[in-house]
């Protein structure tokens, strides 16, 4: 191991193209919570097995901390070997300005177009007919995680959908528990709101607002219902003094909070804590109402590198990511759904199976990260974090501001 | 300016054609030596500023591009409630931090000046927070002010169970929680500057005041402080720049929360430039920050430096 690393370093520094079949590749990502780190390790091990070396460039914090660092490294002329972004439009301009390499050869060799499901994943990686990223996993936001212990303590049955959960809120409060755990960082409330839109309002409403960016619908009575629901969520979330999403998940794991609306990456945390789906915790996809999941997720992008050996290693990494075995190992640890449907996931737990079933039925929507620009997402985040923290903003006022954001969205 | 005063230019010979190059090549060595500095100042500071202002009128997203959209970015900026909150927070923080760090710093320095024992030990203690970065300061105060582990938790465990002190989780007073940390960090430096100023006051002035029977507080207020004017100006500039660039403290303590309640302009600039990938909006916000500083600095500088020459 050490000798191989030494050889790789030697090869890299001496710039001997023939001896440098193996190369060190720095991969930056923000997979830092317990479950995520375990998943990354699977990916790194698989990549190391190809004779190359995975240099881990984990950036702590959330995506919003990590992305500026990644982007400034790429635009500043110090690109890493590969980097994580969410599917969609976060890396759009980097691709447009020719800073990223395309993976067409790898994709054709691996028949990505046939195996990667749903097709929207690859479509998000494609710009002017060329494929620029390797999708790693499918993540969906629309999950309500419930602590069975908390509901037992409050003396109410575990809710089967969002409405029952809201109704159980006062009982949880009486038992001295936090009904809904929400962390302070803005992406959490933003995702929560989008989840309410699709779960309560239906896929059609969701598409009208985020895909067609229809200002009238955003200001209309159907969205008003969503804002009323967000007002409920705001009341239930009052008092959860945590910052990061995994701290909020931890409140649910330890039974201090009744539930949390969070993407399926929270699944990895439950797994790390040794909890069993159905027994210790309950998951409700689509909040138990509209069984539709948005298929966002993570993808690995590859900046253009001058070093030939490293460029070769990039291709190897892209192949490794899509490899069926790696897909299974990685996604089991991370709690996400594989990007290909031809893999065997017998080892998956109940929650994951529910997710896989919904996605394979095709009842999916495109994630907001793919539909709207980072700028619009940020404006929404500002609005939602203000709305959730400040009880003096009425749902009506928030909706007016939301409609104007959608009106100018791109 | 001074040319209008006849006595100021008695030795100047009548302009001759050979007189000009003389001026230009005088101290040639030092001029050459200064050229890199002048270039750096012109290109990096001045050029960078102008570039930013120009691009604030474009719709640049992740990368700068020169497609101009007029005042759109500014209209959006001033319509954004987050920006308004940021400005309000900066005003509250700025005014209070200016007053408190000057007053507390000066009082501490005056106490220190009473020839007390262990002065250097106290000086070290008060200055020590300044050696910590804003991030560390912010994290320390985040813990102290955390309702579960910090002050509130301790007081409650002593028996006062209804005691509530959670500034960082209350949108109405969160900015004061940040102010406390800022003062804790910055007051030591102000104290040291003031102490240096006090030490620079001639001992004879104190003796004269004592002979005249002027009470100590009056001597400080009406004699010593006016004499310390240069020290106060230095301190003001330091505190002022600290206020405008307030960013890391907020990030470490609250990251702008709860909600948007503790946002500051510098954070708006960063978030929109890099997280929202909207350079144009970030540039517009930073131009507004520059404009605000200019509005305060220019009249003051005019009075300060323009006035001296007249007098």
UniProtKB/TrEMBL annotation, chain A:
The keyword Glycosyltransferase does not apply. Its main location: periplasm. It is found in: Periplasm. It holds the Pfam family SBP_bac_1. GO terms for cellular component: periplasmic space. Keywords: Periplasm, Signal, Sugar transport, Transport. Residues 1-22 form the signal peptide. InterPro entries: Bact_solute-bd_prot1, SBP. Part of a binding-protein-dependent transport system for a sugar. Belongs to the bacterial solute-binding protein 1 family. This is Probable sugar-binding periplasmic protein. It comes from Rhizobium wenxiniae. The lineage of its organism: Bacteria, Pseudomonadati, Pseudomonadota, Alphaproteobacteria, Hyphomicrobiales.
TrEMBL record, chain B:
Residues 87-302 form the ABC transmembrane type-1 domain. Gene3D superfamilies: MetI-like (1.10.3720.10). The keyword Transmembrane helix applies. The keyword Cell membrane applies. It is found in: Cell membrane. GO terms for biological process: transmembrane transport. Pfam families: BPD_transp_1. It is a multi-pass membrane protein. Residues 1-21 are annotated as: Disordered. The chain crosses the membrane at residues 32-54, 90-112, 124-144, 173-198, 219-244, 283-303. Keywords: Cell membrane, Membrane, Transmembrane, Transmembrane helix, Transport. InterPro entries: ABC_transporter_permease, MetI-like, MetI-like_sf. Residues 1-10 have a biased composition (Polar residues). Its main location: membrane. GO terms for cellular component: plasma membrane. PANTHER family: ABC TRANSPORTER PERMEASE PROTEIN. Belongs to the binding-protein-dependent transport system permease family. This is Glucose/mannose transport system permease protein. It comes from Aliirhizobium cellulosilyticum. The lineage of its organism: Bacteria, Pseudomonadati, Pseudomonadota, Alphaproteobacteria, Hyphomicrobiales.
């Amino acid at each position: 191991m050490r000798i191989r690393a030494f050889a790789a370093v030697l090869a890299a520094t001496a710039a001997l193209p023939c001896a440098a079949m193996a190369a060190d590749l720095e991969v930056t990502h923000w997979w830092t919570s317990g479950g995520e780190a375990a998943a990354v390790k699977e990916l790194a091990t698989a990549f190391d097995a190809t004779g190359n070396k995975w240099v881990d460039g984990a950036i702590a914090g959330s995506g919003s901390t990590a992305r500026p660092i990644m982007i400034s490294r790429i635009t500043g002329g110090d690109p890493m070997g590969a980097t994580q972004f969410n599917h969609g439009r976060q890396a759009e301009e980097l691709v447009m300005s020719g800073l990223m390499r395309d993976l067409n050869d790898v994709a054709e060799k691996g028949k990505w177009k046939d195996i990667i499901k749903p097709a929207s994943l690859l479509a998000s990686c494609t710009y002017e007919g060329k494929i620029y990223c390797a999708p790693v996993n499918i993540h969906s936001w629309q999950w309500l995680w419930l602590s069975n212990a908390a509901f037992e303590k409050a003396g109410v049955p575990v809710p089967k959908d969002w409405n029952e959960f809201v109704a159980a809120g006062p009982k949880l409060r009486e038992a001295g528990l936090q009904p809904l755990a929400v962390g302070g960082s803005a992406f959490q409330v933003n995702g929560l709101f989008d989840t309410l839109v699709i779960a309560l309002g239906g896929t059609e409403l969701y598409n009208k607002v985020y895909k067609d960016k229809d200002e009238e619908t955003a200001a209309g009575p159907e969205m008003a219902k969503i804002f009323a629901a967000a007002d409920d969520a705001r009341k239930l979330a009052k008092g959860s003094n945590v910052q990061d999403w995994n701290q909020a998940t931890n409140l649910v794991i330890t039974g201090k909070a009744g539930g949390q609306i969070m993407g399926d990456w929270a699944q990895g945390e439950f797994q790390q804590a040794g909890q069993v789906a159905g027994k210790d915790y309950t998951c409700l996809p689509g909040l138990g109402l509209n069984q539709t999941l948005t298929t966002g997720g993570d993808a690995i992008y590859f900046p253009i590198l001058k070093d030939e050996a490293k460029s070769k290693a990039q291709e190897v990494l892209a192949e490794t990511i899509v490899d069926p075995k790696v897909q299974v190992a990685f996604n089991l640890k991370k709690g996400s759904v594989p990007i290909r449907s031809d893999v065997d996931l017998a080892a998956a737990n109940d929650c994951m199976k529910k997710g896989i079933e919904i996605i394979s039925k095709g009842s999916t929507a495109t994630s907001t990260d793919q539909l709207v620009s980072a700028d619009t997402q940020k404006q929404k985040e500002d609005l939602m974090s203000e709305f959730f923290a400040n009880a003096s903003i009425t749902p009506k006022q928030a909706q007016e501001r939301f409609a104007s954001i959608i009106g100018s969205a791109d | 300016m001074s040319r209008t005063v006849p006595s100021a230019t008695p030795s100047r010979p009548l302009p001759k054609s050979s007189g000009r190059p003389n001026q230009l090549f005088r101290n040639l060595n030092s001029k050459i030596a200064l050229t890199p500095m002048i270039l750096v100042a012109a290109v990096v500071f001045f050029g960078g500023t102008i570039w930013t202002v120009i691009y604030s009128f474009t719709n640049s997203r992740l990368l700068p591009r020169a497609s101009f959209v007029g005042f759109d970015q500014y209209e959006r900026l001033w319509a954004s409630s987050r920006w308004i909150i940021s400005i309000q927070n900066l005003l509250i923080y700025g005014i209070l931090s200016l007053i408190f760090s000057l007053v507390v710093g000066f009082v501490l320095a005056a106490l220190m000046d009473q020839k007390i024992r262990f002065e250097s030990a106290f000086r070290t203690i008060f200055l020590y927070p300044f050696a910590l970065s804003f991030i560390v300061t912010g994290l320390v105060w985040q813990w102290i002010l955390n309702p579960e582990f910090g002050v509130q938790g301790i007081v409650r465990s002593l028996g006062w169970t209804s005691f509530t002190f959670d500034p960082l989780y209350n949108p109405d007073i969160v900015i004061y929680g940040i102010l406390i940390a800022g003062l804790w960090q910055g007051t030591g430096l102000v104290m040291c500057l003031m102490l240096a100023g006090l030490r620079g006051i001639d001992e004879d002035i104190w003796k004269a005041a004592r002979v005249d029977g002027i009470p100590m507080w009056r001597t400080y207020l009406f004699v010593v402080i006016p004499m310390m004017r240069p020290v106060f100006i230095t301190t003001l500039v330091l505190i002022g720049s600290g206020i405008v660039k307030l960013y890391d403290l907020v990030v470490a303590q609250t990251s702008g929360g709860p909600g948007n309640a503790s946002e500051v302009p510098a954070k708006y600039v960063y978030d929109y430039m890099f997280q929202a990938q909207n350079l144009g909006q970030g540039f517009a916000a930073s131009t507004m920050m520059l404009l605000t500083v200019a509005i305060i600095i220019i009249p003051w500088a005019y009075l300060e430096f323009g006035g001296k020459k007249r007098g």
